């Protein structure tokens, strides 16, 4: 879910960093902290979606071929 006004990626990251600092300070009442946390989650998801879109666009421009290694899921062994 993207924030309502769809900020630029840079603004969204900046806003997310501000939220993290406020939450790390521990000075907010619980309800306000939960609201900030929820906003932070939304911004994080929005930024992640923007990065995925950018990655797809770059891949298309490169003809689907890159020199980057293929991503593999990380598995934790027992």
Summarize, please.
The chain has 78 residues and is mainly α.
List its traits.
63% helix; Helix Hairpins; single chain
What would you say this structure looks like, in words?
The protein is 63% helix and 0% strand. The chain is mainly α and 78 residues long. Helix 1 (9-25) packs antiparallel against helix 2 (30-61).
- Name of the top-level CATH class of the domain at 9-62: Mainly Alpha
Fill in the CATH topology of the domain at 9-62. Helix Hairpins
What is the rounded Rg? 17 Å
Q: What is the helical fraction, as a range of percent?
A: 55-70%
Oligomer: single chain
Number of separate strands = 0
Question: Which descriptor suits the 3D outline?
Answer: elongated
Low-confidence stretches: none
Number of separate helices: 2
Order of helices and strands: HH
Mean pLDDT: 86
Q: What's the topology here?
A:
Elements lengths: L8 H17 L4 H32 L17
Helix pairs in contact: 1-2
């Amino acid at each position: 879910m993207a924030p309502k006004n769809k900020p630029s990626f840079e603004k969204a990251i900046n806003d997310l960093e501000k939220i993290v600092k406020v939450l790390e300070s521990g000075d907010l009442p619980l309800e306000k902290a939960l609201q900030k946390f929820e906003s932070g989650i939304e911004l994080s998801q929005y930024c992640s979606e923007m990065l995925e879109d950018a990655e797809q666009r770059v891949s298309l421009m490169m003809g689907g071929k890159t020199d980057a290694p293929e991503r593999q899921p990380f598995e934790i062994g027992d």
